[in-house]
Amino acid sequence: CCDSVYRGRLALAPGDAVYADGQRVPTDQFDLVGPVPHVILIQRAIPITIVDGSTTQTITTAALTVGGAIAEAGITLYVADGVTPPLTDPLRPNLAITIQRSLPITVEVDGKTLQTRTHRTTVAEVLTDTGVALVANDFTVPGLDDPPPADGSAIRVVRVVEQIITETKPLAYETQYQAIADLEIDTTQIIQAGAYGTTASRVRVRYENGVEVSRAAEDSWTAAAPQSRLIGYGTKIVI
Fold it and tell me: How distant is the alpha carbon of residue 23 from its chain centre?
């Protein structure tokens, strides 16, 4: 397009930018013979302030959006970083842009290690962002309402499984004696052999990440009564 369109009628100050049909055109490389664009935008350079954590800088930019100004300033953003105003907002003079830097976070869950970044304020929000769901008695270290660890330690998800099992134990039998009139004195005879009984108990076993950590008996009963051992002794006197 004609050079006079850019320079003859509209003077460019240092830092201003020219956009032809939405594409930024280097001001020192105008095409003198190319087709005339449909829309020519002269974006005047304006001062803005970028607050990035503890660093504050003021720049003059002709970018169109918040995101363009951050890129022009050479600042690298991570997906989880927060930016206020949003990246797509247009710039205005003396605008203050604030970057909330995300923390590198490690989540240990189901035998896997997930690496991510976040600017969330609680462990529960971090798990929601990473798609990790807790079921029943599952818990986390640190707790769900605690802030994500800033010292580089991992968020540990503990899977809890509880099972009810039945345990049995032998129940000892007693030995009883009974006189037998027709059995010669000083002799004995087994009348009934003893038999062990069985006690049963219902036990709740708790596993955390597949490792048993506790078990507690909930109730117990006699599954089979013991049978006493019966020994007869003679009382018959033989002359």
Answer: 42
